Structure formats: structure tokens, C-alpha cells
Amino acid sequence: MISRGTNLAENWVWLSKTNQVLFHNSRTQLKAENDKIRCENIAIREALKHAIYPNCGCPPVSEDPYFDERKLRIENVHLRDELERMSTVASKYMGRPISSHLATLHPMRISPLDLSMIGPSLDFDLLPASSMHSQPNNLATISDMDKPLMNDIAFTVMEELLRLFNTN
């Protein structure tokens, strides 16, 4: 009986040592596998940083596509505002509204969050409210002198703007 108990004790010690060795081996293997995966991730990130697009041969613009899309949405809002201002100016020069051309543009749905992040508009003082009231109206003398030329220029500019906006 005593030999049997000693044998069980020896077996217990042997099993515990075996478990420790096996656990240590599996932990070492997992650590090695994690290190290998980490190195692969670093290599992939570096490759993406130096990637070149096959269509244009240019490097990627940014690492985060969310911010790229956000910038484009903000720029679209600014461009639409500018289009409205330009169409207002052109309609004053041409003597007819340009809004029928604007209906062909597909308006984007932009959340109020996106609009709140836009910031100041690209105001090139095309229709400044304060200067419209403080300065005398010189448009009549200019349009009387070169009205046909200005109509042609305004129409050409509007066609070009509409063509550019319709490509989007």
C-alpha cells in the first residue's frame, strides 16, 4: 500500500511538471505566433504607406478614408454655394434665371453634423451684402457698353460650371 501511495505521489509530481512544461511550450508557441503576426502587420502597414495607385501612379492621399470623404463632402457644400452665387450673378447679367440648370444637379443629403463642421464659406465677395448697399450700382453702365460680350462670357462660364458639376 505504501508503495502505491508513493507511486501516486510521484505520478502527481510528474503530471504537474509535465503540465508546466506543456503550458510553457504552448505559451512560447503562442508568443512566437503573435510576434510573427505583429511583424506581418507592420510590414503590411509600411507597404500601404508606400503604395502607388495603378491608374494614376500617385500615392494614396490619406490614411483615413473617413476624413477624405468628409473633406469631399465639405468641399461639395462650398462648391454648391459658389454655384448658387455664380448663377445669381449670371442671371443678373443675362436677364433670365439660371435655376433651370441647377435642377439637373443631384443634391447630396448632408447631415446637420456635417454642416456644422464646415466652417467659413469660400466667399469671394461675388455678392457682398454690405458693399451692394454702400456702393452705387455701376452694373448698368458696364452692361450697356458690353452686354453682348458679357452675356456670352456669363453663358460660357455657366456652361463650364454646369459641366464640371454634372461630372460629379
TrEMBL record:
| InterPro entries attached to this UniProt entry | HD-Zip_IV
Q: Which domain of life is it from?
A: Eukaryota
Q: What is this protein called?
A: Uncharacterized protein
Q: What is the lineage of its organism?
A: Eukaryota, Viridiplantae, Streptophyta, Embryophyta, Tracheophyta
